[in-house]
Amino acid sequence: MRTSKLSVILLLAVIAALFFIPFLGRVHLFDWDEINFAECSREMLKLDDYTRIYVNFKPFWEKPPMFFWMQSLSMKIFGINEFAARFPNAVCGIVTLIVLYLCGTRLYDRKFGILWALAFGGSLFPNMYFKSGIIDPWFNLFTFLSLYYFILYHWKHNKFDKEGLDKKPVYYAVWSGIFMGLAILTKGQVALMVFLMILGVYFLYNRFKIFFNWWHALLFLVVASLVTLTWYGYETAKNGTWFITEFLKYQYRLFTTHDAGQEGFFGYHYIVLLVGCFPASLFAIPSFFKGRYSSRYDKDFKIWMLLLFWVVTLLFTIVQSRIIHYSSLAWFPVTFLAAYSFYKWDRKEMDYKKYVGVLTTILGAIIAIVLLAVALIALNIRQLIPYVHDTFAQANMAADVSWSGWEGIVGILMAATVIIGLRQLKKHDFLKAATTYFVGTAIVIFLAAAIIVPKVEKYSQAAAIEFFEQRQGEDCYVTTLGYWSYAPFFYTHKEKPVNPNSYDENWLLTGDIDKPTYFVTKVDRVDDYKQYTLLKELYRKNGFVFLKRETNKK
Hints:
4-stranded mixed β-sheet, 25 helices, 6 strands, 5% strand
């Protein structure tokens, strides 16, 4: 008896939950993005204002509110903590794998649906991001679903040979518009930009033939606009145009300038995708080329996925800022193409290429060596300090972190995954190979998140964050000197300032302060503040220097 679709969905949901939910709160949130977004959600709750976003109790117009609504709801349920901040993306992981299973099943069959879900859930960055507290997983899912429903609309409107499309074209156009509106509410107009660029390139590919009804296109835009007006319209009606205007200006600057520390070389995103989407990235390579197609829709959907990949990667190569998140929407086509390779190999509709196994083994071996090296270096890290010339890094490396050596099991498991997977590829046992590579990689990520990342974090930011946590409930000011961090806001549970002078660093250092003030700086920057004689050093730990200034009042 064949397993019912509902049973597969429930099983997939349970497995995804077991991979994505445990250990969400095991590690502090990371600067900048995770803490930044969590703080926006915390202040949303604190101020009871769900239309305008704030950080450090100042308007923050860089992002729309959809993800912050999710995080604030999570924080209402689970409290102000790391688990609550990351939980929405764990849910997104569960939903995404189910969506890909359903999409793959509708496109081909259950086997393909399972392969696509495996490829996405069992690749490095796609899996890791479901354990994070950043915006992109939900944004990517909404944007992909908008494009997916538009493809179904296109097939229905143009009478493609695809069974199961029993709704009228307008149905698919409306759903495409709904998901586009949600994508815009999650991260901004970049979703519509990518969508329209893909449609434009497909128009060229289609030899300038219009493949949609203009009234349906207008309906798509109207539906998307109505969804976005739940925020854009309400915020403008309530508070005027200033906040929305600043938000739109920021979106424009994002594409025309780079932020500090966000530059990179021209091929940045391709390297990020190659390594970050391992092993799917390498198995996708054969499907980038022309192949044998079983139907018109088989060829067409692959073309759409290729267009999605190239538009995203080329667009964000042109954009001045180089950030890993920007190309993450390409994970959908990359994992589709990886599943497509395995599916076609298994059906003998595409020839297996030996170079794929070789490249996967090489990159997998490098990743395994890196994971093994982390444990080996950690056991001997103090002996390496004299060879490092950065003062802050030296102090980081001196942190008291307990390593047993068993952490290397993660690297050994990665190596075993690569070896077993390669043997199965050589035997042309493609479905078993896919399961080995993707499930093995998912387990590697799970174990790394549980036993390696918490220890690595202790070398970087843990000392500072623990200091901030100790200030919770204390009537004081807390800030950083010589570097920027969102951690003092979130981890002290900062209250809305009463005295506007508290935003002025010079006043905190030299002015007539009305509360004790704590400063956190780094060992390589503390000398820059020696002239401030009112500062008293409390202690140093792991590269951070903790200072305090008392009030003049007795």
